[in-house]
């Protein structure tokens, strides 16, 4: 027989696989034919699941498995290795609790398995919650994937604070959080029950320090997200969707991962669940042949989460992918800002030049066709050039954009206004004294001057397009050749400009220019590169990270060294 594939949550599959392995060791035993009477599926609030089976000798047996402390509390007996149930002494309870803690501190998810025999099937819906006999304690290892630690580090550098909210035991949660760098020195790790009991004021104080919340209920995740948002934070939640749906829904960005994500994926292509890397590594010695009934306990409890709750579905179930989401999110946002900055400069200058000139001389230097042309190249090609820049690592080293932050930042206004003033001064001088300065005379003087103004205006925009690649940094050329689109756009803009000025005079109201004037246009345009450097030396906004906002909540530090 080939190896069968087990479907279900990683916890379930790990246990079932272990049970099946054990069956191979102990031999398939008699209890298999018991009939299932009732199943209480796993639920994140109770953190346990139960099943009621009727055995052939008339006995009804309840099996229960779930969070170790919770199941242990329901037990008053323990199954010894010889198969006899003996009362659970205080000393034994302590030993078991110690074992649980040792497992948990080793980053293992701990579960207990217990059973209870009854003569009759109980009435009502509830399966008993006391008088159980403890069968086993399990420690399940869910190895932290390679790269998670690095991903958390990148998040921290990017000003994204990673918190862990889990249904697991606090010690398990702490151990895992330490392993992936979520729990740091001075950070707070608490249990959901404690978190729940706090009032609003205490939460305001507690939440900024909170790094790990363990044994949480679905509602706790939701409460945390609501409070973080109230504090003005932008919250992204990742979850496997089944019990995280409320929090995913409440978050600004809901990232469905794990089963919810892969379940969706499974619909597109068949997905091999056996690749899920949970493995059972440790268990205590209190095992008996009762375990053969164990498979009845397994339920395919995973429910496809509502896809509407998530904004992003992480198909590869990998935390590192979230970095990519953030990188591209930032890249797109910044690219749009760059384009808007560039576009606003073009429009402000064109509008003012034409308006002022019309008011004073009754004549606009830039004709309708020229403006249309400017708009076409600047809109289409500019968007293409600036919006297709790929993300870079720099982007993940700046703090995130806050919820209420203006789209056009002060930095952008500085660049827009500075460049516009330069262009307006130059073009204004040319407009009013250009003939004199350029020594133009004769009947053609006016049209030559206007063509020259148009050409200079276009070159100013062209160089400003290069400036717009970087809003804050002086070096605007970094990686300019890695994006071939940008170079292609610049070259084709120049080519179009030559064609329109030199050959399409009748259409665009231009005349061919001498090479001296071409050179002068380019020179004047290129001065905007120097203007940009001067502007960037003018500080406008200090991204003061420690400014408390209205709730007294401090923004997170930007680098790990400040944590
Ligand atoms: N199938 C199951 N049957 C019984 N108990 C379970 C099962 N799965 C998890 N548990 C228990 O419940 C706890 C997890 O609770 P919960 O599902 O609320 O948290 P979670 O952080 O969403 O977990 P997960 O990583 O499974 O998504 C585990 O620590 C374990 O003790
Ligand atoms: Ca879950």
TrEMBL record:
Topology in the lipid bilayer: Multi-pass membrane protein
Catalysed transformations (reactions): Ca(2+)(in) + ATP + H2O = Ca(2+)(out) + ADP + phosphate + H(+)
Location in or out of the cell: Endomembrane system
Principal cellular location given in the protein's record: membrane
Ranges of residues in domain Cation-transporting P-type ATPase C-terminal: 364-536
Pfam families to which the protein is assigned, alphabetical: Cation_ATPase, Cation_ATPase_C
Matches recorded under InterPro entries: ATPase_P-typ_cation-transptr_C (IPR006068), ATPase_P-typ_cyto_dom_N (IPR023299), ATPase_P-typ_TM_dom_sf (IPR023298), HAD-like_sf (IPR036412), HAD_sf (IPR023214), P_typ_ATPase (IPR001757)
Keyword Membrane: yes
Keywords carried by this UniProt record: ATP-binding, Calcium, Calcium transport, Copper, Copper transport, Ion transport, Magnesium, Membrane, Metal-binding, Nucleotide-binding, Translocase, Transmembrane, Transmembrane helix, Transport
GO terms under cellular component: endomembrane system; plasma membrane
Species assigned in the record: Vanilla planifolia
Transmembrane segments: 444-463, 484-509, 515-535
GO biological process assignments: copper ion transport
Entry GO MF terms: ATP binding; ATP hydrolysis activity; metal ion binding; P-type calcium transporter activity
Keyword Transferase: no
NCBIfam families: ATPase_P-type
SUPFAM superfamilies in the cross-refs: Calcium ATPase, transmembrane domain M, HAD-like, Metal cation-transporting ATPase, ATP-binding domain N
UniProt-recorded name of the protein: Cation-transporting P-type ATPase C-terminal domain-containing protein
């Amino acid at each position: 027989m080939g190896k069968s594939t087990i479907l279900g949550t990683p916890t379930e599959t790990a246990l079932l696989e272990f049970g099946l392995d054990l069956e191979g060791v102990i031999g398939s035993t008699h209890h298999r034919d018991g009939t299932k009477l009732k199943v209480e599926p796993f639920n994140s609030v109770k953190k346990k699941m139960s099943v009621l089976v009727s055995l052939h000798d008339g006995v009804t047996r309840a099996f229960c498995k779930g969070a170790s402390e919770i199941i242990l509390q329901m037990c008053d007996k323990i199954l010894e290795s010889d198969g006899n149930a003996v009362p659970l002494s205080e000393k034994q309870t302590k030993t078991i609790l110690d074992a649980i803690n040792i497992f948990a501190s080793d980053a293992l998810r701990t579960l207990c398995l217990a059973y209870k025999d009854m003569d009759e099937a109980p009435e009502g819906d509830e399966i008993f919650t006391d008088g159980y006999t403890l069968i086993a304690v399990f420690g399940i290892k869910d190895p932290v994937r390679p790269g998670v630690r690095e991903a958390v580090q990148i998040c921290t550098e990017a000003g994204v604070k990673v918190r862990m909210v889990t249904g697991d035991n606090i010690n398990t949660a702490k151990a895992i959080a330490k392993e992936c760098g979520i729990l740091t020195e001075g950070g707070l790790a608490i249990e959901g029950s404690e978190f729940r009991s706090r009032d609003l004021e205490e939460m305001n104080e507690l939440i900024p320090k909170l790094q790990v919340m363990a044994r949480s209920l679905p509602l706790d995740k939701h409460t945390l997200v609501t409070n973080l948002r109230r504090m003005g934070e932008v919250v992204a939640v990742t979850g496997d969707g089944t019990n995280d749906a409320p929090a995913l829904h409440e978050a600004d960005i809901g990232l469905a991962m794990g089963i919810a994500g892969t379940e969706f994926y499974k619909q597109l292509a068949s997905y091999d669940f056996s690749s899920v890397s949970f493995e059972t590594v440790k268990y205590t010695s209190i095992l008996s042949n009762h375990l053969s009934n164990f498979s009845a306990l397994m339920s395919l409890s995973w429910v496809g989460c509502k896809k509407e709750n998530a904004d992003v579905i992480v198909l590869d179930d990998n935390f590192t992918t979230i970095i990519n989401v953030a990188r591209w999110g930032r890249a797109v946002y910044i690219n749009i800002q760059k384009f808007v900055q560039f576009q606003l400069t073009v429009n402000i200058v064109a509008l003012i030049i034409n308006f002022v000139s019309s008011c004073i001389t009754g004549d606009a230097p830039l004709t309708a066709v020229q403006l249309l042309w400017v708009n076409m190249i600047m809109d289409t090609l500019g968007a293409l050039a600036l919006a297709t820049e790929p993300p870079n690592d720099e982007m993940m080293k700046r703090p995130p954009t806050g919820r209420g932050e203006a789209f056009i930042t002060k930095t952008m206004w500085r660049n827009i206004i500075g460049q516009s003033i330069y262009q307006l001064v130059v073009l204004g001088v040319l407009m009013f004294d250009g003939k004199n300065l350029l020594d133009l005379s004769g009947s053609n003087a006016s049209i030559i001057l206007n063509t020259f103004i148009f050409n200079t205006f276009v070159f100013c925009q062209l160089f400003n397009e290069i400036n717009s690649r970087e809003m804050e940094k002086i070096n605007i050329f970094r990686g300019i050749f890695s994006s071939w689109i940008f170079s292609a756009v610049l070259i084709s803009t120049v080519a179009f400009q030559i064609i329109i000025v030199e050959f399409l005079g009748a259409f665009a109201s231009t005349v061919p220019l001498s090479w001296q004037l071409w050179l002068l246009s380019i020179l004047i345009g290129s001065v905007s590169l120097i203007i940009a450097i001067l502007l960037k030396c003018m500080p406008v906004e200090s991204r003061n990270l420690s400014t408390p906002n209205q709730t007294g909540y401090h923004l997170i530090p930007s680098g790990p060294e400040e944590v």
